[in-house]
Amino acid sequence: ATVKTVATTPFSGQKPGTSGLRKKVAVFAQAHYLENFVQSVFDSIGDIAGKTLVVGGDGRYHNRTAIQTILKMAAANGFAKVMVGRGGILSTPAASCVIRKYQTFGGIILSASHNPGGPTEDFGIKYNIPAGGPAPEAITEAIFARSEKITQYRILDAADLDLDRLGEQHLGEMVVEVFDSVADYAELMQSLFDFDAIRAAFKAGFRMKFDAMHAVTGPYAVEILEHRLGAPAGTVMNGVPLEDFGGGHPDPNLVHAHDLVAALTGAGAPDFGAASDGDGDRNMILGRDFYVTPSDSLAVLAANATLCPGYKAGLKGIARSMPTSAAPDRVAARLGIPAWETPTGWKFFGTLLDAGKATFCGEESFGTGSDHVREKDGLWAVLAWLNVLAVRKQSVAEIVTAHWQDYGRNVYSRHDYEGIDSAAAEGLMEHLRSLSLKGQTLGAYRVAFNDDFAYTDPVDGSVSKKQGIRVVFEDGSRVVFRLSGTGTEGATLRVYIERYEPDAAKHHLDPQVALADLISIARDLAQIEARTGRTEPTVIT
Ligand code: VG1
Ligand code: CO
């Protein structure tokens, strides 16, 4: 096999967003497009000679093609070894687990997460650092800068490898090891949670449904829930990963995980329901006729963490993204541990986890996780809930409502306006940025302050600006506005609404009702209808 040096010219817009570079498949399929980005990664991460890289993806359309290219480029650029999940499959948390366990020089994860897959849908790529987490901004910016100047890339002229055959193969000087995508991850989960207690619960008749949404978690969930924990066959729904996710939208929320929601509704429904997304890092938690808001899920798990063997010693701190509700902060205060508020995106939790300042982290966008890896972890959250349910022997609804009674409820909702005109979206954000609202009264609320959230990392001092417009009221209620950094079409406006409700008599109210006045304040402030033409959000969570 010979190394080819291929002349190329830059593509504009190879800038990683909230979680890597995400584009339509047709964009990635252009000659040199993927190669340019991968070479830009290899040129930006330091000396790779003799090192090991992990590669895998969520199995979506173009996954295998991209992996073959990356393997040949890794060989041509001097990696000694690449570890690939069998069939090219690795969930995002499993990739993080393997990077850490085998102390590799990071990994490349191929995913567009919750975005649909297929020839006309989305693809994505990101580099994770040796600690196992998404590359921090300094690195993603270096990759982008490199992509704008690139003139050539290196690739081995060789035949494709068999990604389905376990064991070692060779690509020139480089070893390619195809390994079991599930085993290391399942072992890690077993070390953190009380599998005996969960197994006993299933044996005693506890029932759940897990919706893998035809995405990457199918094989992980079947192995862990059905094989290791003894849940009945059929507990995992849509468990076979498909290149187009069965035509669905692998986003675990009330809109897209409708099969699961239907299965959890009514008297005969199972005790517990959960779903994960395209790449396995998100989770949605349901009880029978009960939905757990992700912010509450983080708070409840943190309050109950010591019931899980891996967290028996307690938590060092809790971190949440800025738009996530303050429910976890209340738990941190009670526990006497720090509560951290970071910008949106898991990459901002890495330094806190590495420094031992936080143990649990979460985002309102169905992301929950801990210091066991450096990504959010869908099945981890499911197992944490199973562990808590098995020990407390109460229903999901009982546990959450008791939590609200104890701490008060941070009533919360997110409204997404998807696919709006990009210029209109930018104009809307500029308008919000220009407002000075301090001291003004809006409906029943007085504005304490408004700003564009800026973050200084408490560990490495790096500064991230323009992370979302906050309008914070004197009673702690908030509305927050951001533009999505993961979409591939037009712009998506996210509006986050939160109000604290201490009165237990009002905890049962539908958040859309309880938040109605703040929702209309947010609409008016941002002039949503006038600027976007939209009267209603496309997705409410
Ligand atoms: C969204 C979520 C964010 C999450 C990111 C990646 O980003 O809001 O909380 O970290 O997706 O999740 P944005 O910029 O679209 O709001 V995943 O599961 O797509 O890797
Ligand atoms: Co994801």
UniProtKB/TrEMBL annotation:
PANTHER family: PHOSPHOGLUCOMUTASE, PHOSPHOHEXOMUTASE FAMILY MEMBER. Residues 14-153, 184-286, 295-407 form the Alpha-D-phosphohexomutase alpha/beta/alpha domain. It comes from the Bacteria. GO terms for biological process: carbohydrate metabolic process. The keyword DNA-binding does not apply. It catalyses: alpha-D-glucose 1-phosphate = alpha-D-glucose 6-phosphate. One of its GO terms (cellular component) is cytosol. Belongs to the phosphohexose mutase family. Coiled coil: none annotated. This is phosphoglucomutase (alpha-D-glucose-1,6-bisphosphate-dependent). InterPro entries: A-D-PHexomutase_a/b/a-I, A-D-PHexomutase_a/b/a-I/II/III, A-D-PHexomutase_a/b/a-II, A-D-PHexomutase_a/b/a-III, A-D-PHexomutase_C_sf, A-D-PHexomutase_CS, Alpha-D-phosphohexomutase_SF, PGM. The keyword Transport does not apply. Its EC number is 5.4.2.2. Keywords: Isomerase, Magnesium, Metal-binding, Phosphoprotein. One of its GO terms (molecular function) is phosphoglucomutase activity. Its cofactor is Mg(2+). PROSITE patterns: PGM_PMM (PS00710). It comes from Paramagnetospirillum marisnigri.
